[in-house]
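Good morning N.,

You mentioned wanting to compare the apo and holo forms, so I went ahead and generated the holo version with flavin mononucleotide. This is what I fed in:
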Amino acid sequence: MSDAALETAFTKLVGVRHPLIQTGMGWVAGPRLVSASANAGALGILASATMTLDQLRSAVREVKSRTDEPFGVNLRADAGDARDRVRVIIDEGVRVASFALAPSRDLIAELKDAGVVVIPSIGARRHAEKVAAWGADAVIVQGGEGGGHTGDVATTVLLPQVVDAVDIPVIGAGGFHDGRGLVAALAYGAAGVAMGTRFLLTSDSTVPDAVKARYLAATVKDVTVTTAVDGLPHRMLRTDLVDSLERAGRTRALVQAVRRAAGFRKLSGLSWPQMVRDGLAMKHGKELSWSQVLLAANTPMLLRASMVEGRTDLGVMASGQVAGVIEDLPTCEELVARVMSEARHVLGTLPTPG
Ligand SMILES: Cc1cc2nc3c(=O)[nH]c(=O)nc-3n(C[C@H](O)[C@H](O)[C@H](O)COP(=O)(O)O)c2cc1C
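and this is what came out, ligand included:
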């Protein structure tokens, strides 16, 4: 079966060869991973929430210097400087804007007017309906098995539910790692799959080897969802840090949070009021303690400790359940070729009607 058989509304919309997305993961999806994914024919998405504006601009330029293929930038719609980030995306001619939370109608309009394809990530049907009504071009639907901040409805239930609810292309995320998963998602009516953990575990990802080794050693039972880090359900590897945060009382949690906040402030150049504002924005109307507000603003710092510094003892290792079944570190080129060839094979083995 030829590649043409796996052309979808998504591949046509964005102009990529394969119906695959490498998602924007803080500290992980940098220029090297994104350009490797793009050159392999997937849509690579740069994670910008953990970058300053200047870092974002130079990261975008670095990707452009490494590939002529389309790519995207992921940003937090609730970030104080979301508008400035949108400006960078438009000025630099980035093909796709991806959002960690539903963007406002205005932001969608501004991007679309400039010819940028808008693909928010959502975790519930009503959010998909909302962004579709506001003009989003496609949505990534993340089921509960996905890594990072996540919901509690499984991909197998959420994906077809959203496919039925909207008439824009829907890309499934959460739990995908191979060609069988891609074919299953297409069968649900999706236009492709987005993978985070699977692309983190490639030789093109800059995540330190010691950290990759922890993911490779994990079983599906070693991946947990906790609210102890930032008050929101967050899927990650279960570590001593997670255990200690879950056990800590209010005072100890606040002391730990302030210490981490101080470290992150130095790294990010954010002011304390900005950090508190970003932390409060992540509350989503929930009752969070002050330590959780600070930790919410600090999640990037906790991810950085592992994803950049290799501190498996101190950092948070966001992960999908799928880490429990991943056992190798292919290049992005090998991974994409393998997923596509498995998908073609599986399509050829499905029972035919009659
Ligand atoms: C290490 C890590 C960091 C992540 N950071 C972000 C982020 O900054 N923004 C975002 O929208 N999603 C983030 N996510 C979620 C992924 O983009 C993606 O939706 C998820 O990993 C899909 O599930 P999978 O891991 O089962 O493939 C992150 C996930 C991981 C594993």
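Residues 23-26, 28, 47, 49, 74, 100, 121, 142, 145-148, 173-176, 195-198, 200, 318-320, 322 surround flavin mononucleotide (CB under 6 Å).

Happy to go through it together on a call whenever suits you.

Best,
F.
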